[in-house]
């Protein structure tokens, strides 16, 4: 209750500020440890998705500002890379405490700019916080190998930072995804240029403030804003050695190609179409509740949202019950205590999802629950789509071919598990897939044959905790080194292998050897 009241207070402050101020506050750049008002003449309005009020204005950083940020990161790298690992570990511990202390502020900023409900916004922060906690063990993650390969001769490895790295973020997890990136980059000794989504930069700005408060040196983390021009800078400037991207396919493919063509490492998590297979022997209550929660939570705007349910055999009879569960979910502004799902990010995203629902009807599917035009009395201007369930979907339909990224469940029916797996493997994406069953043999078969980065067995959203890595398959991932965990550490570091010879003082070489040492 105390946390809830804190968040309510924050919302009231925001509203008062909006009402009093002639123009909303601008979002600053964070360069060399300072908040910098951009000199740009191009600004993007950030709207509260529940009310359409302009929460803030985000600059498209100018060429000079981008240059200053990169210069600052490059300068800071010189000393940050030589900081002791214990200091970097201590900073991670301090940062995790600061994030914990500011949880409500971060969550409230996410509700205001992104729209998700407050409890879910706390989850957004929490899942990112866990990466920071894991990076407090950087002393374990960075240990190398050592072997005495010959008398007096040792070979050993060290993982060294790359230099300046860049992160480009999507709108749907304003805290978690920046936290997938910069804590791993910084703990491993890099400096970072982070570009939050221009649609909800508030959480990243609070995180930068916390980094400053706990004493990360100036220039170690810089925040630059903008869209294409900023992205073009980050993927071409020679000082940037690696680019982390999370977002949609179009931007992701462009960024991956541009960054790698310019000689940079790149990891890119892209779009998704996550399937849940429901076997007839599944625990029905668990499976249906899990699917409803994972489809409609966060208004379906999670990359791991379950958007396709594949009912095998007799389980097809349960589809109407999913719709019943979905009907009970309450759609409201994210600060309302009874809200289960909030608005979608923008009127355009809402219109696109509504269009895909209509296309399903036009192409012969059946809409068993239609959330279009839902009334949310307190927020008449919000981008709301109520939970929507579409049955009898086929693989040719647009609603199946495209990522809807809204609270829409498309239902399909097959006769066997083999057919379900074939269907999933035929999809161009491979982010997550889950199976609901009581059979270990079915689960085992699914696990080994399905082409997906994250596999859930009776688990709807199997996002790995940070001691593992977030993996992806097929069209959902470009690159070969995944986000966070051991893979994340490898992405932001390069191996150096040293072979040393320390002989006794009186040993003497008698002549030069010209053959390959063996
Ligand atoms: P988006 O691709 O529109 O934006 C992501 C970033 O790319 C933003 O910072 C944006 O400024 C930049 N960008 C957008 N268009 C660009 C272009 N044409 N050229 C250069 N840069 C561009 O993505 P979004 O709408 O913010 O996020 C939703 C998408 O992200 C969904 O497709 C979702 O599946 C995906 N996502 C994937 C994961 C994952 O781990 N696989 C996680 C979260 C979100």
From TrEMBL:
* Entry EC number(s): 1.2.1.27
Q: Mind naming one GO cellular-component term on file for this protein?
A: mitochondrion
Q: Where is the Aldehyde dehydrogenase domain?
A: 35-498
Q: Which InterPro entries match?
A: Ald_DH/histidinol_DH, Ald_DH_C, Ald_DH_CS_CYS, Ald_DH_N, Aldehyde_DH_dom, MeMal-semiAld_DH
Xref: Gene3D superfamilies: Aldehyde Dehydrogenase, Chain A, domain 1, Aldehyde Dehydrogenase, Chain A, domain 2
Q: Which UniProt keywords apply?
A: NAD, Oxidoreductase
One GO BP:
L-valine catabolic process
Superkingdom, taxonomy of origin: Eukaryota
Q: Does the keyword Secreted apply?
A: no
Q: Name one Pfam family in it.
A: Aldedh
Q: Name one GO molecular function term.
A: methylmalonate-semialdehyde dehydrogenase (acylating, NAD) activity
Q: Which CDD domains match?
A: ALDH_F6_MMSDH
Keyword Oxidoreductase tagged:
yes
- Family assignment from sequence similarity: Belongs to the aldehyde dehydrogenase family.
- Under what name is this protein listed? methylmalonate-semialdehyde dehydrogenase (CoA acylating)
**Organism expressing this protein natively:** Coemansia reversa (strain ATCC 12441 / NRRL 1564)
List the top taxonomic levels of the source: Eukaryota, Fungi, Fungi incertae sedis, Zoopagomycota, Kickxellomycotina
């Amino acid at each position: 209750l105390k946390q809830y009241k804190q968040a309510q207070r924050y919302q009231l402050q925001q509203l008062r500020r909006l009402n009093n101020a002639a123009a909303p506050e601008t979002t600053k750049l964070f360069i060399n440890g300072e908040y910098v008002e951009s000199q740009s003449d191009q600004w993007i309005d950030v709207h509260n998705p529940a009310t359409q009020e302009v929460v803030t204005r985000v600059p498209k950083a100018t060429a000079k500002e981008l240059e200053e940020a990169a210069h600052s990161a490059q300068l800071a790298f010189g000393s940050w890379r030589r900081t002791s690992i214990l200091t970097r570990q201590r900073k991670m511990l301090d940062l995790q405490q600061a994030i914990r202390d500011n949880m409500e502020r971060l969550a409230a900023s996410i509700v205001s700019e992104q729209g998700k409900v407050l409890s879910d916004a706390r989850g957004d922060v929490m899942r990112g916080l866990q990466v920071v906690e894991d990076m407090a063990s950087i002393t374990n993650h960075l240990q190398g190998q050592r072997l005495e390969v010959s008398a007096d001769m040792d070979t050993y490895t060290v993982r060294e930072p790359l230099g300046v790295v860049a992160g480009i973020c999507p709108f749907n997890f304003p805290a978690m995804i920046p936290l997938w990136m910069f804590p791993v980059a910084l703990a491993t000794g890099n400096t970072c240029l982070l570009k939050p989504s221009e649609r909800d930069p508030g959480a990243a700005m609070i995180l930068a403030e916390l980094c400053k408060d706990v004493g990360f040196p100036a220039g170690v983390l810089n925040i630059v804003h903008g869209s294409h021009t900023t992205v073009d800078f980050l993927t071409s400037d020679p000082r940037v050695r690696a680019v982390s991207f999370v977002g949609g396919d179009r931007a992701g493919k462009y960024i991956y190609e541009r960054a790698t063509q310019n000689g940079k490492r790149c990891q890119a998590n892209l779009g998704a179409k996550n399937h849940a297979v429901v076997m007839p022997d599944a625990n029905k209550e668990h499976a249906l509740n899990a699917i409803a929660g994972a489809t409609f939570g966060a208004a379906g705007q999670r990359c791991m949202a379950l958007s396709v349910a594949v009912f095998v055999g007799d389980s097809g009879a349960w589809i109407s019950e999913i719709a019943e569960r979905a009907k009970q979910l309450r759609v409201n502004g994210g600060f309302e205590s009874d809200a289960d799902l909030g608005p979608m990010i923008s009127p355009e995203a809402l219109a696109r999802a509504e269009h895909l629902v209509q296309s399903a009807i036009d192409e012969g599917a059946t809409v068993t629950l239609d959330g279009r035009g839902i009334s949310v009395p307190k927020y008449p201007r919000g981008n709301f789509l109520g939970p929507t369930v579409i049955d009898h979907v086929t693989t040719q339909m647009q609603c199946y071919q495209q990522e809807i990224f809204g609270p829409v469940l498309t239902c399909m029916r097959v006769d066997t598990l083999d057919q379900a797996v074939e269907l999933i493997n035929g999809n161009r994406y491979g982010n997550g897939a889950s199976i609901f069953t009581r059979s270990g043999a079915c689960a085992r078969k699914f696990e080994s044959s399905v082409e997906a980065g994250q596999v859930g067995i009776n688990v709807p959203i199997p996002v790995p905790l940070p001691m593992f890595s977030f993996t992806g398959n097929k069209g959902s991932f470009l690159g070969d080194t995944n986000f966070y965990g051991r893979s994340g550490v490898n992405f932001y570091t390069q191996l150096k292998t040293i072979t040393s010879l320390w002989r006794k003082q009186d040993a003497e070489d008698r002549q030069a050897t010209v053959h390959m040492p063996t």
